[in-house]
Structures are given as structure tokens and as C-alpha cells.
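Methods: holo model generation. Sequences were used as deposited, without trimming of termini or removal of tags, and paired with ligand SMILES retrieved from the corresponding compound records. Each pair was processed once, and we did not select among multiple samples. The sequence and zinc ion SMILES for this entry were:
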Amino acid sequence: MALHYPFAEPPAGGELFEVAPGIFWLRMPLPFQLDHINLWLLRDGAGWVIVDTGFADESVRALWQRILAQLNGPVHRLVVTHFHPDHLGLASWLMDETAAPLAMTSGEFLTAHVVWHEVAGHGARFMVEQFRQHGLGAELLAKFETRGSGYRKAVPALPDHYDRLKADDVLTVDGRHWQIIIGHGHAPEHMALYCLELDVLISGDMLLPRISTNISVFAATPKADALRWFLDSLADMAERFPGQTLVLPSHGLPFRGVAERVDELQAHHVDRLQALETSCEQAPKSAAELLDVLFGRALDTHQTMFAMGEAIAHLNYLEHAGRLLRRVDADGVTRYSRPRAAAH
Ligand SMILES: [Zn+2]
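and the model returned the structure below.
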């Protein structure tokens, strides 16, 4: 069955549109090929709860100023699904503007801080070294080195305190209960929120209708089986929401059909895993040498960063599953081959 999209068009940038009783959709611009993010505003009595904050740039701040002036009531709470800049970027600024507290998971709050400060194996130099080991060429590595992580530009300030939310915690908004659902593979402790009374799931980046969520392997956890974690989280969602739950994703249009979308994403990754395995059967290959197999199109520098993380995640999955063997060649590059017994 195909996904069902109840709203054909997104609201204009900076306009509020009610998608369910008391749940408002706000679309903000992003300076990438992925040119927007969806944020959600929840009515909470005389006030509001804001879910995700947008990328820190002047156009988004100006749109927020306009929205805040319209809200006609205090902001009671900011909730951020995960540490990525389009979600967390303006949290600190909005805390200052509204005096509202911030709620996050500890995995996301702490990751934001180590990425911002580039410590504990996080940051551009660790990523460059990770990509060097995975075979990326000197020219691209030099570009990444010069660009830096870009995180501080997009998240200019971080709060130093927050309200910690954990798996299965319940947030009460306007008398309704929102259950905290933790997912892995895209970010360390990504939070989605599910309202039983409304049958609405704010899915963050864990479940998107058209694009496949980026899976990341950090340099600090080089062997992380992030794709397996992601697929397990998806399976969990399909089991919890087999029916007509309205999904409010961070990118794309709201939709119904969790189980159908999870099926599509699982099939997509199974197919990509198979393609990588087959390619490594012909000759051992590095993650960089497999970008073509995985994506089959030209990638710009920004996309290459995500693509490398994604390739490493797929290769880690195959290694953990015993379908590929990792070895480090004389040139210092990690390459993957089929185990002898499995080769044919
Ligand atoms: Zn994200």
C-alpha cells in the first residue's frame, strides 16, 4: 500500500498550519540542497511547546521573531529531537527570547557539546583521519580539513543545562500524553514523540517519507553498527504503529503508513548491502571506492561527508554480520573482502 499524504502542500515559510488539534506545522528554510525543516508547535493551555528550533541564520531568526509575536502566549518548553544543527541550532537563542527551558536526551545534549568543542574524538580532524583510513582521496580530505565541521557556525551557542528526557518518559502537553521514543543510528539518542490521544508521531529524522535518513558512524566509535541500530529502531516503530498514525517528519510532508514506509526503507538497505557485498566479491574495496556502488551519482563535498558515513555504516553492518572481512592494506587504507568460505 502506498503512503497517504493528508496535506498536498507545505505551509509557506514562517506560516503556522494546524495538522491535528492543537498541533501546528512550521516550515523553516535550510541553506542546503535539502532546503527545509519542519518544526512543530503544540498548544499547551494558554501557552506553547516548541519541537525543534531550526538552523541558526538570520532568515530563520527573522521568521521566528514574526512567529513569536503572533503566538499570543508564553512558550512553556522547547523540545529538541537531536543534536543536528537544523534541530538544535537556535535552541539557545530561543531560550533567551522566550525564557523557556529545554528538554532533550542526555545522549544528544552531551554529543552536541563534544561536537561543538571538538573533543573526545569528535570534530573535523577526527573525521578527516577516519575518512583517510577509509580511502578518501587527498583532494577531498584537504577540503574537509579547510571547511572544518561547520557545527559552531550553525549552532552558535549551546545551553549548559537542560531537562533530561529518557525512553518511555511521558511529557504532558495540554493534558495529552506524549511518550518519548528513542531511536539509534542517525544520532546517538534521537527522540521521537508519540501522542496516544491524537495518534500522532513526531518522528524527527528517524522516519522520513521520501528521503532515506542518513546513518552516521562517528570517528569516536569507528566500529559502530549504526545501520543495524537504525533498522532495529525502524522495526520497533513498525511494530508500535501498524495502523493509521499520522507521522510528522522533520523533512517532507506528513504521512500515514509507518509500516509501509519501514518496509520500503528496509528493502532499500537490504538492496544496498547486497550491492556492496557483490562489489567486494570481485576485489577488496574501501568505503571511498564503494561510494559509486552505494549512490550511483556524483556527490558534492557536503554530500560526500554524509555519503562516507553511510558507506562505513553499511560496511560495518556487513562486517558484524560476517558477510565481509576488514583488512588494512599497505597503503594504510581499510578494505573489505568476502570471507573465503562464502566466496563463490
Ligand atoms: Zn538529523
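The chain has one domain: 16-281.
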